[in-house]
Amino acid sequence: MQTVTKRELVQRVAEKTGVQQINAKEVIQNFLDEIINELAKGNRLEFRDFGVFEPKTKASRVARNPRTGDKVEVPEKTTVKFKVGRLMKKKIQKDYDPSQDPEEETVSSDDGGGELSGSAHPIVSG
Predict the structure, then answer these.
(1) Among the listed residues 93, 90, 109, 111, the one whose alpha carbon sits nearest the alpha carbon of residue 101
(2) Are 68 and 118 part of one and the same domain?
(3) What pTM does this model have?
(4) Is 91 exposed, middle or buried, given 0-12, 13-18 or 19+ CB atoms closer than 10 A?
(5) CA 15 to CA 26: how far, in whole Å?
(6) How does DSSP classify residue 93?
(7) Same domain as 60, residue 86
């Protein structure tokens, strides 16, 4: 498995779209910033066929220090849950055959797949 960096993604997007790398980088960074901002507001983000990002609040709890056995209060915290979308789930399987995928297409602006969900799920703090 190899790690793909944001820089490599910027280069690929710039090459595929014919835009300058600086413009591709700005768009990608703004996209990532918006995801972070929406999650920070408690909103759920749904990208059709890709997946769903959703903030989840974990309640405060009492845990034990494994060294001393003392009880320790663990405060409430918010994490991000990601649920894999249908197309991504299909494509990451080892037995995936792209030649049998009728959905293989280029991204178009009318597919509705890139819109952020407008529903708000407030984070409850207590």
Answers:
(1) 90
(2) yes
(3) 0.67
(4) middle
(5) 15
(6) S
(7) yes
Q: pLDDT per residue over 13-29, tens digit each?
A: 999 999 999 999 999 99
Enclosing domain of residue 120 = 46-98+114-126
DSSP state, 66?
T
Distances (CA, A) of 126 to 12, 41, 64: 44, 16, 22
Task: Map tokens 């494509």 to a residue.
Answer: 91
Strand partners, 8: none
Instruction: Check if the beta carbon of residue 42 is closer than 8 Å to that of residue 123.
Output: yes
Of 89, 80, 79, 13, the C-alpha closest to 51 is 89
Angle formed at CA 90 by CA 50 and CA 106, multiple of 5 degrees = 55
In a domain, 109, yes or no: no
Residue 59 gets which letter from DSSP?
Answer: P
Q: How far apart are CA 43 and CA 121, in angstroms?
A: 5
